[in-house]
Amino acid sequence: MTDTAPGTSPGTDVEREIRALVAEATRLDPDYLAALPADTELFGPQIALTSLAGVALLAAVKKRYGVDVADLDIGLDSLESIGTLAQFVTRVIHPDAP
Description:
Largest sheet: none
Number of strands: 0
Mean pLDDT: 90
Shape: globular
Distance between the termini: 17 Å
Structural class: mainly alpha
CATH topology: Non-ribosomal Peptide Synthetase Peptidyl Carrier Protein, Chain A
CATH class: Mainly Alpha
Low-confidence stretches: 1-7
């Protein structure tokens, strides 16, 4: 799981880490990903997540958070954007967070 830095919400930390995992899976510049809005589509033209990179991303999320997105989100709606994936992971690892 992840520790939350003082003064930040669990979702903020998770989104930052998800962006880093997306950068690693897609081999995109982390600074480029950090500048994109949260609603940027993972499979859209700005990130262009491939199926192979998607598998790598899901494996990285499972390793980092212990969250098996494919098992818990059958429709994989959480893979719509950076924000939806971060929100999904946050809800699973911090179910009592606001």
